[in-house]
Amino acid sequence: MAKADMLSRLINTLTKAEKRYFRLYTALQQGNKDYVNLFNLMERQEFKNTAAVKEAFLLQHAGSSYEVCSKYLYKILLDCLLHLRLQRDETAIITAGILKSDILFERSLHEEAFKQLQKVQNQATERENNVLLLWAKQQEIQLLNQLNFPDLTEAALLHKQSNIYTTIQQLRHYHQHTSLYEILRHRLLFQGMARTARHQEALDELVVEEAKLAAETAPAIRKVHLLFQAHYSLITGDYTAALQLFHDLETLLETHTYLFDDTPADHLLVIEGILDSLRAAKRYKELHSFLDKVRRFKNDGAYFEVMIQRLLFIYELGIYIDSGNFSAALILQKQYAAILQKNMYLLDIGKQAEIYLYQALVYLGNEDINHAHNCIEQVLQQSNLYSALPVYRTFRLVHLLIQYELGNYEYIRYETRAFRRHLQPDSKRSYLLERTVIKFLSGGEVPAVTAIRLTLWKKISASFDKIRIDKYERQQLKLFDFSAWIEAKLKKKPLGEILKEKFEREL
Fold first, then answer.
1. DSSP code for 446
2. How many CA atoms within 13 Å lie on the side-chain side of 383?
3. Rounded to an integer, what distance in angstroms lies between the CA atom of residue 383 and that of residue 385?
4. How far apart are CA 196 and CA 388, in angstroms?
């Protein structure tokens, strides 16, 4: 990303407090302040590209150098953000403490330097931050060495070295544990839910390794253990267990808030895990209650704001989709459209794809096929970016539903051959859900005779009954009930009506 584009993103993601601090900081500076004029321009107006920003700036400030101002503004903004972080972020405060001890030592304030390091070690120990604890302990030994170990016996030195070794061992143990969790999350993101026995076996191997490391009861280790077990339960479709584990994580957060201070994204993972488990378990009353809690979530900055809005959008919309209330879903979608479109670029491609999918499903349920098609094409036209994501399979399948709605039966026959190749590139086997949907779509227009349609639905319904009791096959139904769409076609009823009937039966 070009420096000018990074500057634009930096300004667009500043909070009100950060902007206020920038203005206070620059008010104290002397000399030319064209960089402040550039900031004001970029904050108050939206520009298509960097060239438009440069043109507008030079028009208002002839004789100024846009390149110099933009580079300096970028530097000042980072300095301001760093200074703010040093005031409120505990990890940054501890880091600054270690640097302060070095400054004190250089000024021959040795006693104060060692007091500062002891304070830092206590803070790092309380927060279970072994990386900074190790740094502080090593810094202490280094400074003592420079002073020729004054009043320090060999036994005391050996004790300090032993403490450093213990910290290294703890850090190594934590790293091994988090590595397993990271591998598990990577598989969830890029392989999706466990949909074969082989996939399950590979996951179980990780569980065996993780169990060996989870014996310790330290809060930081317990946090990683619960995150691992909760995501394992999600991957394997055990939503009841996942929900309990995510609730345990919420309890841990309430009693040990510092565990999530350095990794606020982990807190969002816990929130999303609870939402996902509640929806999958069809516990909609609890889901409504928890969404109210999400609305009260304290966020800092544009990224966390859009992450929270995305969660509210996805799971509020999910309730409406599951219940067949597509008219309410469309109203909700319009309410969220502005903020999601404005900050969509802050989300990773997986989360962007998810938003496009839900938008497409809402339009599909409202029989607005053209808009549904446009949403799906946002992803399919950039298959090089999205094809590695598990949700891409669902896009291909929904794309075929849309083509069916448009009556493009010949195109569907051509596309389903390509889709089958994509389903399992390393084997001839595809999943029953996808085979069932594709077989129906390949049959073309539904028969005109009611009896034939109902007989066909009876056969297809039997396949979906098998899918629902198969822990590997039923995973994809969590996103969208494809059986309801086929039933609507064969019974010639609105999709919303079919989903509403199912929703009320399940409640």
1. P
2. 6
3. 5
4. 18
CA quadruple 454, 460, 466, 472: dihedral sign: negative
C-alpha dist (Å) from residue 475 to 141, 221, 337, 428: 55, 30, 28, 21
The rounded distance, in Å, linking the Cα atoms of 336 and 313 is 7
Q: Where are the domains of the chain?
A: 3-88, 90-152, 166-295
SS (H, E, C) 160-206: HHHHHHHHHHHHHHHHHHHHHHHHHHHHHHHCCCCCCHHHHHHHHHH
Task: Label residue 108 exposed, middle or buried (CB < 10 Å: 0-12, 13-18, 19+).
Answer: exposed
- Paired tokens of 342: 């404005």
∠ CA 61-66-70, rounded to 5°: 120
Alpha helices in 239-348 (DSSP H): 239-255, 264-280, 284-295, 302-323, 326-343
Place of tokens 């028009």: 59
Q: Which two tokens stand for residue 121?
A: 């070690």
DSSP-derived letter for residue 492 is: T
Contact between 406 and 397 (Cβ < 8 Å): no
C-alpha–C-alpha distance, residues 382 and 374, integer Å = 13
pLDDT along the chain (507 residues), means of 10: 75 88 86 85 82 86 86 92 89 94 95 96 94 96 95 94 96 94 90 80 91 86 93 89 92 87 82 91 90 81 85 94 95 91 87 94 96 94 88 91 93 78 50 88 90 94 89 79 94 94 85
Burial class from Cβ neighbours inside 10 Å (0-12, 13-18, 19+) for residue 303 reads middle
* Residue 425 confidence (pLDDT): 45
